[in-house]
From TrEMBL:
GO annotation terms (biological process): lysine biosynthetic process via diaminopimelate; polyamine biosynthetic process
Renumbered residue ranges of the record's region Disordered: 1-25, 436-458
Name the UniProt record assigns to this protein: Lysine/ornithine decarboxylase
Cofactor(s) the protein requires to work: pyridoxal 5'-phosphate
Biased composition (Basic and acidic residues): 448-458
Residue numbers of N6-(pyridoxal phosphate)lysine PTMs: K86
A matching Pfam family: Orn_Arg_deC_N
Organism: Nocardia cerradoensis
Domain Orn/DAP/Arg decarboxylase 2 N-terminal per the UniProt entry, residue ranges: 68-254
Record: active site: C387 (proton donor)
Length: 458
């Protein structure tokens, strides 16, 4: 996973005496506003499940896919969207990708099988990852998937399979220390030596860390010449894949600035510090970041001129605002820092279901305390129901709008991308939180607005 982040040194010179971080309220999609405003639905789901759970609203993934595709259309280019499946394991997300004409980027036999089983056709898969297993290469060729070849030896292994293989050659970006991709010399050797009959080189791919659209645009532009050269050698090149890393904008600019500019370790339980965070506020983000890639030096025009299809592999960005994670408060302690009281909450799950802690960082969008009631702002940090000192969901003291009490719910917003299930395990023999699928459907009474229904993901 690529989670490169902006780095902020904690500001030790701050003169603030506050023990509470500024509020970091997440942007909300319409389905979340309806859910939080509903006086019963969330409570009914929590009561039925009886433990922590993830919510997914797959229809939002469809909206995100359509918004990326709209950028291809506006720029008059041929484009393809492959969902970076490692960002979330949900079958319902794959299903909605299939329904909206997106493929998937998979990297294991399990991911490939799951993508096929939930409706994505073999031709619409791209198989990435280093040194792929024999089983994965065999299945990928059987199903006609594109294979992003990571090293020259992989081409020999494909040739040995005796079937036709569709491949992209993965490029090691210049001046990169990445362990993935091939150097310029390796690419040249491979292009000259590969027989286009069984191995169809359909193009090139890369995946950059960070979220900079300009870097993606410039590397894509530099690879256009490589595409033309490969065509001249007889390879049926159609596609340039620029990978994922379309940023997600979780928080408003003002909130993010208040957090980063005045960043103070005293906002955190035990004065905990982190070296870096995901950049929770980004402009451009998602489909607008794709537009920035295409607009820079008019990349779109170059792609059009040479009839090159641009492929993207967004993971996190397709899941933007498509899910949240719900825990129940099962313990409340009062502690003090600098003589000021705060709540130390314990919830009924673990940070394995909110992964950012496992990347030495913290998930910063504020959880919503539900039910929403007026009260006095109360700082609170959030610990897990485990015996690990380090298992905290939120080390920072969040300004909750009222004191939390046992039985309240904490709804962590926008967790579908990487937070929910990348790191989950049944540590302590705790059950894995199930995924609850929400959908919007017309009410029986046509005078009423559409309502939310829920089911469990199978
Ligand atoms: C992880 C990954 C992606 C998805 O990255 P996001 O940052 O979630 O968009 C796409 N392509 C490759 C090759 C990856 O490894």
């Amino acid at each position: 996973m690529t989670t490169s982040r902006s780095t902020q040194a904690p500001d030790h010179t701050s003169t603030s005496t506050s023990i509470t971080a500024p509020p970091l309220p997440a942007h909300r999609d319409e389905w979340e506003r309806r859910l939080l405003a509903d006086t019963r639905l969330l409570d009914d789901i929590a009561y039925t499940i009886g433990g922590p759970f993830h919510l997914l609203y797959p229809q939002r993934v469809g909206v995100n896919i359509d918004a990326f595709r709209e950028q291809f259309r506006r720029h008059g280019i041929d484009g393809a969207i492959y969902y970076g499946k490692k960002a979330n394991k949900s079958a319902a997300v794959v299903r909605v990708c299939a329904e909206h004409g997106a493929g998937a980027d998979v990297a294991s036999v399990g991911e490939l099988s799951s993508a096929l089983a939930h409706g994505i056709r073999g031709h619409d898969l791209v198989v990435t990852g280093p040194a792929k297993s024999a089983e994965l290469l065999w299945l990928a060729t059987r199903h006609g998937a594109l294979i992003a070849v990571d090293e020259p030896g992989e081409l020999d292994r494909l040739a040995g399979l005796g079937a036709t293989a569709r491949v992209l050659l993965r490029v090691l970006p210049p001046d990169s220390t990445s362990r993935f991709g091939m150097t310029g010399i390796e690419l040249d050797t491979v292009l000259h030596r590969t027989d286009p009959a069984p191995i169809k080189v359909e193009g090139f791919s890369f995946h950059l860390s960070g979220y900079d659209p300009i870097a993606r645009s410039e590397l894509a532009a530099a690879l256009v010449d490589r595409c033309l050269h490969a065509r001249a050698l007889g390879h049926p090149v159609t596609t340039l894949s620029i990978g994922g890393g379309f940023g997600v904008d979780y928080l408003p600019d003002t909130a993010w600035r208040a957090f980063t500019e005045d960043h103070d370790p005293h906002w955190f339980h035990a004065d905990k510090t982190f070296d870096s965070y995901y950049p929770y506020h980004q402009r451009p983000a998602g489909p607008a970041a794709l537009a920035a890639v295409l607009d820079h030096d008019d990349l779109a025009k170059v792609l059009r001129a040479h009839a090159i299809r641009l492929a993207i592999e967004p993971g996190r960005a397709l899941l933007d605002r498509a899910g949240s994670t719900v825990f129940r408060v099962q313990g409340v302690k009062t502690r003090t820092a600098r003589s000021l009281p705060y709540q130390l909450l314990t919830v009924d799950g673990t940070s394995l279901s909110l992964s950012e802690q496992w990347f030495d960082s913290e998930y910063l969008p504020d959880p919503v305390l539900w039910p929403t009631r007026p009260g006095a702002v109360t700082p609170a940090c959030v610990g897990a129901a485990t015996c690990l000192e380090s298992d905290m969901l939120s080390w920072r003291r969040i300004p909750l709008p009222r004191p939390a009490v046992i039985g309240d719910l904490l709804v962590y917003p926008n967790t579908a991308g990487y937070q929910m299930d990348s790191n989950e395990s049944s540590f302590h023999d705790l059950p894995l939180p199930p995924k609850v699928l929400l959908s919007s459907s017309p009410d029986a009474d046509p005078e009423q607005p559409p309502r939310l229904r829920w089911t469990l993901e199978r």
